[in-house]
UniProtKB/TrEMBL annotation, chain B:
Belongs to the WD repeat WDR24 family. Residues 502-513 have a biased composition (Basic and acidic residues). This is GATOR2 complex protein WDR24. SMART domains: WD40. One of its GO terms (cellular component) is GATOR2 complex. Keywords: Metal-binding, Repeat, WD repeat, Zinc, Zinc-finger. GO terms for molecular function: ubiquitin protein ligase activity; zinc ion binding. InterPro entries: WD40/YVTN_repeat-like_dom_sf, WD40_repeat_CS, WD40_repeat_dom_sf, WD40_rpt, WDR24. GO terms for biological process: autophagy; cellular response to amino acid starvation; positive regulation of macroautophagy; positive regulation of TORC1 signaling. The keyword Metal-binding applies. Pfam families: WD40. The keyword Zinc-finger applies.
Length: 287, 790
């Protein structure tokens, strides 16, 4: 059902931790342990390396594209405790802002909905979440929520600004659903359209959270599937009706809600069949 | 020798001699350096105000001895470095900040264990180092630029090595060469000396930018030297060749104060930083980007690190400025890699999926491609010793872009549909028909059917023109009704691409007759028409038509032919037939009223025809909707729009909303509408369908949406003559009293499109300028500027 269009030679020297398409689906940003962020033009089935952003001193965990109404802006966060905002100007990418206010690895960045302006939420292992707001003229306003999570924050994501006239001053930063069972974390969530959140975690479960309550206080989880292996990533399709889930078992599965509200797997991809041998599994601890 | 054998027997139990757990104790003062005695049972901590020996017990540190004695200890006790002799277990050496090198003999009966005192250095001694196999040989390196070698049996140094007034930060005897030692300097150099030749270094090379704070020989006497500097790098040099060759480089996030190879692990080394960063990192030098393990216990800068036992890789001791002494268990270390997400996944705009994953995950051993630079993941060594740690080695990721084969997955239909839909500018029925056709051509039968149905439901029966058309696709109606009724529980529509196999039985049957639905309909149309009217000649497929059953089989077999069966709608004026069936409204109404259950209508349909799905005969009747008030359908249509929106097809919701306009608008609350509009506009903009997006904005009836078009519409214009801003008085500039927008080619005032050069601000009619610039690159105004039209 799903075919490979192409494999992208990223020339990253180490593991890739995140890949994000931009708003128009024409560019792909990848970030890797090798401290670089690379941007590819993926139009017409081919891919051209557009930029190789160097500036981080540690593995780069996540990248996020800002809404294009603010220009071509990319945020990246890294193990080196820094958040860097990159901006393209006249075809060249430069550092626009560097935030060094975290005391530990910054694990997640996410831009708020454009209605709120250029606002970036960063979640760090030091347990804090920072909100960086661009106030114009190269100025950024920093608001830090200390101890948002006592043992570190793994993911931040914004709810869409769907309700017109919602409190713009208090953007509803969607709190990451940190699962305390995983002290060193590994859950990851993404919020996309239609007041539904998909979350995944290292225990192999993927939940679909729906909120019937307009105030957003009660969220009902629904177990999508219990995978046998850890689940690293979930991503919604543009219309929000297909969920892609990637797991530690080398598979990407596509899920769709069927008529009776059940989620059904409609396709799965596994590139190298049966590739995972125990030798290659580096997730084992040493001792 | 005796001691050595003791140690090796102790280790015979598989490293069981050393046991313990992660633990710490508070020191009275910040530590500067630590050192472990040979049998790993005791550790000495030295600092400006501390000099103590702790015993390492299983559960805790126990203070054994305080070497800092006397009421007012002399500066000789202020230690910059300490080293426990690895052969003589009673012998310690310290480097004092006042330049003294002191040795201590723990075997002394008195409280003061000070043994020898060498005060030959002028400034702080940064480092002391015992020879690994020569008991009485001690080396020191000082800030004053000299290294001195002491024979502990003599009162003075035996030789002095000059670093040419560069401060010495570290000295280390080689494990491999008996006479060789390495010294690192503040200017970034590393020198190799022969202990027998104090006049000149054997070799020198520049290792770092800025001071080299530390160096460490690989314990497996490989001739590898690791150096760490203020430039935040750790470099591993191969010294066995004639020229020192950099073989690995690890970049850390802060200046490197100490580096120590991990015992029994060829590629691992531990580092700590001098400032900013309090963590201890253990790196695999083959994977220089991400630490293999980190110890994050210290609250202030870590000043000393030491592996507890030289053959045990599991225990690391560290002292810190925060006045604590820690023993770290390797299994308690945090592993940044475990937290790292090895996969990235992202849906593209067009339904393509980018997926990056660790190569080891996605390719099997057999088909793994070697990547440029050779396969470093599996050193030969690995096969001999399948140790889990080695798997940390090199990891790379592969990034692939997948295309979904699912109709619903691909988003081509979205942009196609957006482009081709007509939302205004024609009579309502025509819009619907057009859109239905568009949807059908894009192979989205349900959407197509919906459009037709909408048209039928809301058409004005009084309009003969419309009702003529209405007749053309009569059967759509009944199908759509059933379909509509079933919608809420129907879930995936066929064009949404769920595999039929996954679907419940009911769903399948629904879909099965839904999909061919549109096509039978037109066919049967033809049938009826041919029966009831004269048009045999117009009837293209007359030969093929036998009866309903046959029709079905044909169509199920050849869905591809669907298109051909569709005849131009205008060709069949069926109005008389419509009027022939007065009984028709009944089932329909029932249907509607009981929606979403299909019961009544379906029951009737089944009894009318043998085949469940082909309620064709009964279905030809519902044309009588004509005398139902249009508002009657509103709730159904509202539910339908909601359904589409929920399904992710907000396009359909908005399009129907716009086309129906006033007819439906009041049924749906403003917030929902606005939400749909904004979602759709956002989608259109993502697909860069600016024109469509603008049209939608224009046609929307929501205040909040239409005002989107009114933002940033101000245009600031400067006069092309005097270059001053134009006031808002129109075409004539206030200041120079000239018409500002005169075409440089024809000298008339330009109304409409005015194109001008951004360089010289001359311009004119678009076609004039294009024409001019084809023949000449110069500005038509004669200003000499080389204008460019792109």
């Amino acid at each position: 059902m799903v075919s490979v269009i192409n494999t992208v030679d990223t020339s990253h020297e180490d593991m890739i931790h995140d890949a994000q398409m931009d708003y128009y689906g024409t560019r792909l940003a990848t970030c890797s342990s090798d401290r670089t962020v690379k941007i590819f033009d993926v139009r017409n089935g081919g891919q051209i390396l557009v930029a190789d952003l160097r500036g981080h001193e540690g593995p780069v965990w996540q990248v996020a594209w800002a809404h294009p109404m603010y220009g071509n802006i990319l945020a990246s966060c890294s193990y080196d405790r820094k958040v860097i905002v990159w901006k393209e100007e006249n075809g060249s990418w430069d550092k626009m802002y560097e935030y060094t206010g975290h005391e530990s690895s910054v694990n997640s960045v996410c831009w708020g909905p454009y209605d709120f302006g250029l606002i970036l939420a960063c979640g760090s292992s030091d347990g804090a979440i920072s909100l960086l707001t661009f106030t114009g003229e190269q100025q950024w306003d920093v608001k830090k929520i200390s101890n948002a999570h006592t043992i570190g924050c793994n993911a931040v994501s914004w709810a869409p600004a769907v309700v017109p006239g919602s409190l713009v001053d208090q953007p509803s930063g969607q709190k990451p659903n940190y699962v305390k069972r995983f002290v060193s974390g590994g859950c990851d969530n993404l919020v996309k359209l239609w007041n539904t959140i998909a979350s995944c975690s290292q225990d192999g479960r993927v939940f679909i959270w729906t909120c019937e309550d307009p105030t957003g206080n009660t969220w009902t989880p629904k177990l999508l599937h219990k995978f046998v292996d850890v689940v690293w990533h979930v991503s919604w399709s543009i219309t929000g009706n297909i969920l892609a889930v990637s797991g530690g078992d080398n598979k990407v599965t596509l899920w769709k809600e069927s008529m009776d509200g059940q989620w059904a797997c409609i396709s799965d991809v596994s590139k190298g069949q049966g590739a995972v041998s125990s030798i290659t599994d580096t997730q084992q601890s040493e001792q | 020798m005796e001691k050595m054998s003791r140690v090796s027997t102790a280790l015979g139990g598989g490293g069981g001699a050393v046991s313990g757990r992660t633990m710490f104790c508070h020191l009275d003062a910040p530590a500067n350096a630590i050192s472990v005695c040979r049998d790993a049972s005791q550790v000495v901590v030295a600092g400006r105000n501390i000099f103590k020996i702790y015993a390492l017990e299983d559960e805790q540190f126990v203070e054994k001895l305080n070497l800092r004695v006397g009421r007012k200890p002399s500066l000789n006790f202020s230690c910059a470095d300490v080293m426990w002799h690895q052969m003589e277990e009673n012998l310690l050496a310290t480097a004092a900040t006042n330049g003294a090198v002191v040795t201590w003999n723990l075997g002394k009966p008195s409280r003061n264990k000070q043994d020898q005192l060498f005060t030959e250095h002028k400034r702080t001694v940064n480092k002391v180092c015992f020879h690994p196999s020569e008991v009485y040989m001690l080396l020191s390196g000082s800030q004053d630029g000299f290294m001195k070698c002491f024979d502990l049996r003599k009162k003075e140094s035996v030789s002095t090595f000059s670093g040419q007034s560069e401060s010495v930060r570290d000295v280390q005897f080689s494990m491999k060469e008996y006479f060789t030692f390495a010294a690192s300097f503040e200017n970034g150099n590393v020198q190799l000396w022969d202990i027998r030749r104090p006049d000149r270094y054997e070799r020198m090379f520049t290792a770092h930018n800025g001071p080299v704070f530390c160096c460490d020989w690989h314990p497996d006497d490989r001739g590898w030297l690791a150096t760490g500097g203020r430039d935040k790098m750790v470099k591993v040099w191969d010294m066995s060749t004639t020229r020192a060759k950099e073989i690995h480089c690890v970049q850390t996030i802060a200046s490197v104060a100490r580096v120590k190879w991990r015992p029994e692990r060829k590629w691992h080394l531990a580092t700590c930083s001098m400032m900013v960063d309090h963590n201890i990192y253990v790196w695999d030098v083959r994977r220089p980007f991400i630490p293999f393990a980190t110890f994050e216990e210290h609250k202030d800068v870590t000043t000393g690190i030491a592996w507890r036992h030289q053959h045990d890789p599991h225990f690391l001791l560290s002292g810190s400025k925060d006045s604590t002494l820690y023993q770290h268990m390797f299994k308690d270390a945090s592993r940044p890699v475990d937290k790292a997400n090895p996969e990235g996944l992202c849906f593209g705009l067009f339904g393509d999926l980018a997926f990056a994953a660790k190569e080891s995950l996605i390719s099997s051993d057999a088909n793994r491609k070697p990547y440029p630079g050779g396969d470093r993941r599996y050193p030969i060594f690995f096969f001999k010793k399948p140790d889990l740690t080695e798997q940390f080695a090199h990891v790379s990721s592969a990034l692939s872009v997948f295309e979904t084969g699912l109709e619903s997955g691909r988003m081509d239909w979205f942009s196609q549909t957006a482009r081709l839909y007509l939302l205004s500018g024609k009579p309502f029925a025509e819009l619907c028909d057009h859109n239905a056709k568009v949807a059908k051509e894009l192979n989205r039968p349900q959407v197509s059917t919906t459009w037709t149905m909408v048209r039928i439901m809301f058409s004005d029966p009084a309009n003969p023109n419309l009702s003529a058309k209405l007749g053309t696709l009569p059967l759509m109606n009944s199908f759509s009704m059933k379909d509509m009724g079933a919608c809420p529980d129907m879930g995936a529509c066929p064009d949404m691409g769920a595999c039929p196999a996954d679907r419940g039985k009911e769903g399948r049957s629904d879909a099965a007759h839904l999909e061919p639905g549109t096509s039978h309909i037109s066919n049967n149309d033809d049938n009826e028409e041919t029966e009831g009217s004269d048009g045999q000649a117009e009837y293209m497929f007359g030969d093929a038509e036998l009866d309903d059953d046959d029709l079905y089989s044909v169509e199920h077999d050849n869905p591809a032919e669907d298109q051909e069966y569709t005849l131009p709608q205008e060709a069949f004026p069926l109005r008389h037939e419509i009027l022939d069936n007065p009984s028709a409204p009944e089932p329909l109404q029932q249907d509607k009223a009981e929606s979403p259950h299909v019961s009544g209508g379906e029951a009737e349909a089944t009894c009318l025809t043998p085949i469940e799905s082909c309620s064709l005969i009964s279905a030809s009747q519902p044309l009588y909707t004509a005398h139902l008030p249009a508002g009657f359908f509103c709730p159904v249509v509202r539910d339908m729009l909601r359904y589409y929106a929920e399904q992710g097809d907000v396009q359909m919701a908005v399009s129907v909303l716009i086309v129906l306009g006033e007819r439906i608008r009041k049924e749906i609350d403003d917030l929902t509408q606005e939400h749909w509009y904004t979602s759709y506009i956002d989608l259109l903009q993502r697909f860069e369908l600016w024109n469509v997006s603008n049209e939608v904005i224009k046609l929307s009836t929501c205040g909040a949406i239409t005002c989107l078009n009114q933002t940033s519409t101000t245009l600031h214009v400067n006069c092309s003559n005097c270059k001053r801003p134009m006031s808002n008085r129109g075409w004539v500039c206030d200041r120079c009293h000239q018409c500002a927008s005169v075409c440089a080619v024809c000298h008339h005032v330009v109304k409409g499109l005015f194109v001008w050069c951004q360089g010289c601000s001359h311009g004119g009619h678009l076609e004039h300028m294009m024409h001019w610039l084809k023949s000449s690159p110069h500005c038509p105004a004669g200003c000499g500027h080389l204008c460019e039209y792109t």
